[in-house]
Amino acid sequence: MYDFSFEITYDAGVDEFVDLFIDRESLRSEAIHSCLDPVELWTLESVTGDPDDLEAIDTLLFDKSVDRESINDRECDPTRATSLLTNEQRQRIVYTYVSDVDFCEAVPLIVAKYLDSGVLFEQTRTGNTVRWRVLLQDDSKVGHLYDTISAKLGDGLSFSFEHLTEVDSWESSLLPQANIRAEQREILLVAVERGYFETPREVTLDELADEVELPRSTVSYRLRRATAELAKRFADRQL
Amino acid sequence: MTTDHNRNGENRVETDGPPEPEYPTDVLVSPAWVESRVDQLASEGTDMRLLEVDVNTAFYEAGHAPGAVSVDWREDLRSADAHDILSPQEMRSFLESCGITEETTVVVYGDNSNWFAAHLYWQLTYYGHQDVRIMDGGRQCWVDYDYPLTADPVTPPTVAYERSLEPPARPGVRAYRDDVRDALDTDTVFVDVRLPAEFRGEIVKPPGIDEGARRGGHVPGATNVFWAENVRPDGRFKTPARLRALYDSRGITPDDDIIVYCRIGERSSVTWFVLEELLGYERVRNYDGSWTEWGNMIGVPIEVSE
Questions:
Q1: Which ipTM did the prediction report?
Q2: Is B63 within 8 Å of B110 (Cβ atoms)?
Q3: In whole angstroms, what is the distance from residue B290 CA to residue B286 CA?
Q4: Could you tell me if A15 lies within 8 Å of chain B, comparing CB atoms?
Q5: pLDDT tens-digit profile of A177-232?
Q6: Least confident of A2-6, A25-29, A137-141, B27-31
Q7: CB B144 to CB A102 under 8 A?
Q8: What is the per-residue pLDDT across B100-112, written as a single tens digit (0 to 9) for each?
Q9: Which end of chain B lies in a sparser environment, N or C, as judged by fewer CB atoms within 10 Å?
């Protein structure tokens, strides 16, 4: 699989959705898109940020007339359906289905005109920048995509190519990776079940070690590794 | 994006196709103009012929305007052996196989706002074909505005092209590397139509494409006017007033001696068409060797950064 990555930067005032990210620095959005045919598109988008900033973005997230997709000001009027999947103080996860598209100058819809082999799109918004990572089965049309997307940008948008490489890993906050080792996960589950994380602790490290028949130092190490991994993943999602 | 509803009708509700372009129909025709002549274009007669030439050659098979003959730019518009545009003999064979005589009105269109359609237009102009026109907006406009499509391939009968193509009738529309070298440090204006990152020398070719240059940068003194600035979001050319304002704002005027170039000479054909045919600038040449030639040559000056 190939990773075609590029950034689009926006001047203030050309895109009302991006403007909020420019005005409110705590906001960050990660989305994945899928578009098998250039008439429809679905998007799973996680927006994180300070509670006030998230409240400010709620209106736009659920306004069906707000065009969060197009990269120029050509008016498009597809049908949009939006569902709120997660509503927390510091995070919204929104599913959006865009259908009945006659034409819409959105990156996934433009790409779908050139490729019909199931392309995956990852999009990250922070400040005035929208970063796209397009995951493709083959790279033969990337030159066309580069030329076409860069040429379609409206006034106030600029294109910056990052790289075209073969993919060796992918991390998305929307698809958390199970990167806790099996032996760490096992001791973590036992520890939670026995009340090790309760206050006060309902079980000691020695008792856990006896139960799983491992040295205390091994149990301690695996628990620390597992909790460290969870903490780092949590922190990544807040950044 | 925030939509601007009132800018020169560019975002009009698209129900019956785009408005007629404000340009002479002997160089630029609208999709409606083509649609009203579909029967004539699709007939075996030689009065009129429609050609679709796409960068993405897969588009034609997915559907094309009725009567449109497929042109493959890789196979049909360049001379593989000579690494050049078509020779007079190759151009004659190409036209004859497309059912085109010296009297035929040729209408060209294609994807990417007519990149290779403009390149074919330019080659036909170079060889002096009398009547060639571009369909405004190209393939995208035709598809977006729901003009009729068919998947049937079109194979017109081969005809004879009687007029001599040798020497080319209008050599003045083409610049060679020596012309570029001679024009350095003169009043000649070089217009580089590539992306700013290519102009600055950060990228020597688009990703995934082999044909590029050893060095990045641009011809010394060139002005960067990205080719897509000539067109609207739906692929049609901007209005005459806006195109004039664009080039005026970059200090490029109608009486300048102008050489345009890009990477392989096709995007610059769009800008050549705008300056020469739509705006009527006096002397515009397309340097079709473009950056794949200049950026690979030994001993020529280049400029990097802004």
A1: 0.86
A2: no
A3: 9
A4: yes
A5: 556 788 888 899 999 999 999 999 999 999 999 999 999 999 999 999 988 888 87
A6: A137-141
A7: yes
A8: 999 999 999 999 9
A9: C
Please indicate whether residue B98 is annotated as part of the active site: no
- Which chain B residue has its CA at the smallest distance from A158's CA? B196
User: Residues 6 or more apart from A106 whose CB is under 8 A from it?
Assistant: A41, A69, A70, A71, A98
Name the minimum distance, in Å, from the CA of A4 to any CA of chain B.
9
Chains A–B, number of C-beta pairs less than 8 Å apart: 84
Give the span between the Cα atoms of B244 and A149, in whole angstroms. 25
Mind listing the pLDDT tens digit for each residue in B181-228? 999 999 999 999 999 999 999 988 888 888 889 999 999 999 999 999
User: Half-sphere exposure of A207 toward its Cβ, with a 13 Å CA cutoff?
Assistant: 10
Q: Catalogue all structural domains in chain B, each as residue range(s) with its CATH number.
A: 1-169 (3.40.250.10), 171-294 (3.40.250.10)
Supply the pLDDT for residue B18. 82
Phi, psi of A183 (to 5 degrees): -70, -30
**Residue of A64, A161, A156, A170 lying closest to A121 (CA atoms):** A170
How far, CA to CA in Å, does A188 sit from each of A219, A237, B99? 9, 21, 76
- B140: its two tokens: 């995208």
- The residue-averaged pLDDT of A45-68 equals 93
**Domain locations in chain A as residue ranges:** 2-166, 182-238
Residues of A (53-72) whose Cβ lies below 8 Å from B: 67, 70-72
- What order of strands is seen across the sheet that includes strand A28-37? A79-88, A91-99, A40-48, A28-37, A120-126, A129-136, A2-10, A157-166
Show residues of chain A in contact with B236, CB under 8 Å.
none
Question: Which DSSP letter does residue A194 get?
Answer: H
pLDDT higher than threshold 90 for residue A174 = no
Amino acid at B156: P
List of chain B residues whose C-beta atoms are within 8 Å of the C-beta of residue A73: 1-4, 7, 11, 233
CA distance B95 to A194: 83
Question: CA-nearest residue of chain B to A140?
Answer: B208
> Could you write out the DSSP letters of every residue in B236-284?
PBPPHHHHHHHHHHTT--TTSEEEEE-SSSSHHHHHHIIIIIIS--SEE
pLDDT computed for residue B11 by the predictor = 41
pLDDT value of residue A36: 84
Q: How far is residue B49's CA from residue B101's CA, in Å, rounded to a whole number?
A: 10
SS3 B141: helix
In a mutagenesis test of the B interface, which of A15, A130, A152 is the best target, namely the one with the most B β-carbons within 10 Å?
A: A152
Collect the ranges in chain B with pLDDT lower than 50.
Answer: 5-15
* A160: chain B residues, CB-CB within 8 Å: 197
